[in-house]
Structures are given as structure tokens and as C-alpha cells.
Design brief:
Mean pLDDT: 92
Structural class: alpha/beta
Order of helices and strands: EHHHHHEHEHHE
Low-confidence stretches: none
Distance between the termini: 19 Å
Length: 185
């Protein structure tokens, strides 16, 4: 029997797209106050630019509106995006799965990349307060950028915290490029 299940957060337990839309809404509110732009139209433009290419979305939006900007102005938009209070929700099957696993005595962990302030805000909105849902949480950014997945250290930390062998644990993630570390003893 497994001792622990460790989950990724984005696109595993919640929709990253929901977070992105939420962030663009926050930025569009900021730009409404700054330039008087229509908030809904701006949020839509941001999302369309993101779908086109996720790089330099804010730069491209301002350029499309013939706004001359400085790097610090883009950084301010990035800060608004990253530090907004997100409108995110667990996928519908997440909480029932958690309760079922907990009822079986299985420990739950979270191992998530992303900027610490952003990930913590998501967890706050989701109502994840320490041991109520997860027995152990690692936000890799809090350890340092070099701990981001697929670095093995956060996985090893989970293994040691749960006093488990690799065969006693299951990791649930969505991205084979970075979410999976296969340990060998």
C-alpha cells in the first residue's frame, strides 16, 4: 500500500489557464486606471496575445496601442500579474480524491514550481492551510530557483519527510518534461 501521494499544482489540481485569465484581468484593471482602457477588451487582448505567443505579452500590448514604455513599466505589470489575488478553483474531482486518500491513511504532499508569492496566493485562495489538506508543502522557489523541477532534491525531501521508499509514493503531475524525477536507491 502506498504511504504518500504528492501532487503538482498547476494544470494538475487547478487550471493554469484560469490563473492566466485572472492575472490578465488584474492587469487590465490596472491599465484601465492608468489609460482609461476598457477592462474587458484589454483582458481579451492580453489573452489573445498570450495565445499567439506567451512571451512579452505586456510589451506587445503596449506597442499595439502606440504606448512608449520603459522596462520598469513592464516590470510593474509583471508584478501586478504575479501578485494579484487569483480567481482559481480546484478541479471538481480534487477534493473528493483528497478525502478518499486521507480516509485510507495516505499522506498528501504538494510539490510546486512557480514564483513563491504567486503559488502562496493560489494556495490561500484555495483554502490550503498547512495540514488541513496537505501534510507537506514544498514551493520550490522558496528553496531557490535551482530547486525547481526536475531537480531531484525536492522529491528526495518529500521521500525523507514521509519516511517512505520510492515504491511507497506516487507523484501526480501533468508535465513529463519537468514533473517527473525517477529515483534510484
Amino acid at each position: 500500500m502506498k504511504k504518500a501521494v504528492i501532487f503538482d499544482l498547476d494544470d494538475t489540481l487547478i487550471s493554469e489557464d484560469e490563473y492566466i485569465r485572472s492575472g490578465f484581468t488584474a492587469v487590465s484593471q490596472f491599465l484601465r486606471d492608468m489609460y482609461g482602457w476598457d477592462e474587458r477588451m484589454t483582458a481579451r487582448q492580453l489573452y489573445d496575445l498570450y495565445l499567439e505567443d506567451p512571451k512579452n505579452v505586456f510589451n506587445r500590448l503596449l506597442s499595439a496601442h502606440d504606448i512608449r514604455y520603459k522596462d520598469n513599466e513592464i516590470l510593474e505589470l509583471v508584478e501586478v500579474y504575479r501578485e494579484h489575488t487569483p480567481n482559481v478553483h480546484f478541479y471538481p474531482d480534487v477534493k473528493p480524491a483528497f478525502y478518499s486518500l486521507k480516509d485510507k491513511g495516505i499522506k498528501l504532499g504538494l510539490l510546486s514550481d512557480g514564483y513563491a508569492v504567486t503559488q502562496r496566493k493560489k494556495l490561500t485562495v484555495l483554502g490550503v492551510n498547512g495540514k488541513k489538506m496537505f501534510d507537506k508543502i514544498i514551493i520550490t522557489d522558496e528553496l531557490g530557483r535551482d530547486y525547481w523541477k526536475p531537480d531531484p532534491r525536492p522529491f528526495i525531501m518529500r521521500k525523507e519527510a514521509f519516511l517512505a521508499d520510492w515504491s511507497d509514493m506516487v507523484y501526480v503531475g501533468d508535465n513529463p518534461e519537468k514533473d517527473f524525477f525517477i529515483g534510484r536507491d
